[in-house]
Amino acid sequence: MNNFRRTVDMLTNLETEFTNVKILANAALADYTNTDTGGPADWLAFPTTIAEVKELVVYAQQHNLPTTVIGNASNLIVSDGGISGLVIILTAMKDILVSGERVTAQAGAAIISTAEAACQASLSGLEFAAGIPGSVGGAVFMNAGAYGGEIKDALESATVLTAAGKVEVLTNEELEFSYRHSSIQEHQGEIVLAATFKLSAAPFNEIRAQMDDLNARRAAKQPLEWPSCGSVFKRPTGYFAGKLIHDSGLQGYTSGGAQVSTKHAGFIINVGGGTATDYLNVIKHVQATVLTKFGVHLETEVRIIGRRRDELN
Fold first, then answer.
1. Is 309 a catalytic residue?
2. What is the CA radius of gyration of the chain?
3. What is the rounded distance in angstroms from the CA atom of residue 296 to the CA atom of residue 244?
């Protein structure tokens, strides 16, 4: 009853403080993740401007509310216990601006939409991202990549909100990109607000043909028809995660509603009624089996966040 009372009181305070921001209490994060899994957020906010993000973060700091920021939640597993405190989802911040050979996108814009905007402007450099399901902010945070391209190859700079509440512009070099990594991962509380990509002019038909080819290859090889968190594991040095999983005979392995895809062994899909716990059980089984058979530890590429189910009460 005390927890419920605190939720009601805090929601009232948040709604009073942020009259222009959509805020939900006890919101099911399964409604916003690509796996269709995840427990509740204590409070879920949908800012539409940088100023609103900054104000929400400052408010949360002043009230000792843990803060989590997510975008499309495409490379994310939210535990069945959900997330404590305030969750800020940036998908309403999705403006994309083309100026000369630069494309600037807000953090909540889909990287697919950003690649499409570049294509329409006959700008080359983001073709590899044509089918990546994440947001721009998430793509920068993770240095997302596919088919030989990575965000670091095209990014000029990123606008971030620091933990101290300052809006700063970081260059490509300052972001210290490496495989599925950026310096933002090391700076707790830093939030990507926007990104600028420096591209190059090229014939529209060539860009379109490359994007269409990559999307056709993706559709042929990946289980896009099922909810999933995309590629689950990082590529181990000298190996391919999907091949190790395939060679371990794990395709089709199922726990609850989570299954190692029979179409692409690097994906875990929700075949119906899956939970985050099901996903984690499959991940642990895959890791243990591959380690036993090949002596290779598979590190997760997907981010796993949230509290245990027993922490809800």
1. no
2. 20
3. 9
Q: In the annotation, is 299 catalytic?
A: no
Q: Which of 284, 266, 277 lies closest to 228, judged by CA?
A: 266
Q: What is the pLDDT of residues 111-130, one digit of tens each?
A: 999 999 999 999 999 999 99
In this structure, the strands spanning 167-171 and 155-161 are antiparallel
Unique residue bearing structure tokens 């990559």: 214
CB atoms within 10 A of CB 103: 26
Does 231 qualify as catalytic in the annotation?
yes
The one catalytic residue in 52, 157, 180, 228 is: 180
**Residue in this structure with the two tokens 């399901």, named with its chain if needed:** 133
Give the active site residue among 79, 231, 248, 261: 231
C-alpha span between 96 and 114 (Å, rounded): 7
C-alpha distances in Å from residue 85, one per residue of 40, 126, 306: 10, 35, 10
State the Cα–Cα distance between residues 309 and 79, nearest whole angstrom: 7
Are residues 74 and 56 in contact, defined by beta-carbon separation less than 8 angstroms? Answer: no
- The structural domains of the chain, ordered by start, are 2-89 (3.30.43.10), 96-208 (3.30.465.10), 223-305 (3.90.78.10)
Q: What is the pTM of this model?
A: 0.89
Residue type present at position 175: L
